[in-house]
Specification:
- By secondary structure, this protein is an alpha+beta fold.
- It has helices at residues 7-11, 31-35, 38-41, 69-82, 139-144, 241-267; strands at 2-6, 45-50, 61-67, 102-111, 123-131, 219-220, 226-227, 232-233, 236-237.
- The strands form three sheets. Strands 1-2-3-5-4 form a five-stranded mixed β-barrel. Strands 6-7 form a two-stranded antiparallel ribbon. Strands 8-9 form a two-stranded antiparallel sheet.
- The chain is rod-shaped and about 180 Å long.
Length: 268
């Protein structure tokens, strides 16, 4: 908890509404200067705390915390609701707070060193706040049951992000291209012709004119079917039609042999 002060009056060393040293007498800073004057209203807002003996500060008060933008807006609204100023809820009202605006807060630290150029104190976000101008010497304990300025265990607003290294990809070996043996060709086998027993190869014989066998005339049955009459070659009768084709060749060979024998007898 502490006095709410605009950064312009802190940087200026002296408050512009009364000329007093800012870090020595913040209780004399008017609500009007804080929330009505544009140059002060447009600057950052900070909370001034009492300097500890170990801080080595030469002033009774030190810069304790800086409010983030949303918290600054909330504090301005709180000051206007309880204060006396031109933009306050009740305007200038002597029954309201005129100077020395203080607040007790529960905050979350957002950044320990938000602005090096301004030597800014830790940046905080206000979670709860109350006007503490008339709450005594220890409003942190009386209002929230907490010691002033002592952090409590909790989850930080912006916890450090630990990034795990990405998993190391396991190299995938390239596919093994196996040598596929060429298809085995079956050895070519010479084609051999198998003689057909049913068809004897033609026999080259010396052509000798022979007498054609005498065949009996054919007769036709009453049903119109042609019937072959019995035939003879020499003194040998022919067989039925189914066997004639084969037997005819046999008889023809016999006839040729007989004719050759007769011719040789005549020449002798």
């Amino acid at each position: 908890q502490g006095f709410v002060m605009d950064y312009f009056c802190i940087q200026n060393v002296n408050m512009i509404d009364n000329g007093l040293v800012t870090l020595e007498q913040p209780d004399r800073h008017t609500v009007h200067c804080l929330v009505d004057v544009g140059i002060c209203l447009d600057s950052a807002f900070e909370v001034l705390v009492e300097s500890s003996s170990s801080s080595g500060s030469s002033t009774p008060y030190s810069r304790g915390y800086r409010l983030d933008d949303s918290s600054k807006t909330d504090v301005i609204n709180l000051a206007r609701s309880i204060g006396s100023c031109s933009t306050c809820t009740n305007g200038y009202d002597s029954s309201k707070l005129n100077r020395g605006f203080k607040a007790v807060m529960k905050v979350t630290v957002l950044d320990l060193n938000p602005d090096d150029a301004q030597s800014a104190p830790p940046l905080v976000r206000v979670d709860e706040q109350k006007d503490s101008s008339s709450l005594g010497n220890d409003p942190c304990q009386s209002e929230y049951g907490m010691a002033e300025g002592v952090p409590t265990a909790g989850t930080p607003a912006n916890p450090p992000i630990t990034t795990s290294p990405p998993p190391t990809p396991t190299p995938t070996p390239p596919p093994t291209i196996g040598s596929t043996p060429p298809p085995t060709k079956a050895p070519a086998t010479a084609q051999t012709s198998t003689p057909d027993d049913s068809t004897p190869p033609p026999t080259a014989t010396e052509t000798t004119p022979v007498a054609s066998p005498t065949t009996s005339p054919t007769t036709t049955s009453s049903e119109g079917e042609e019937e072959l009459a019995d035939s003879t070659i020499g003194d040998e009768p022919l067989l039925d039609c189914d066997d004639r084709c084969f037997q005819f060749s046999v008889y023809l060979d016999d006839a040729l042999l007989k004719a050759d024998a007769d011719r040789e007898s005549e020449e002798l």
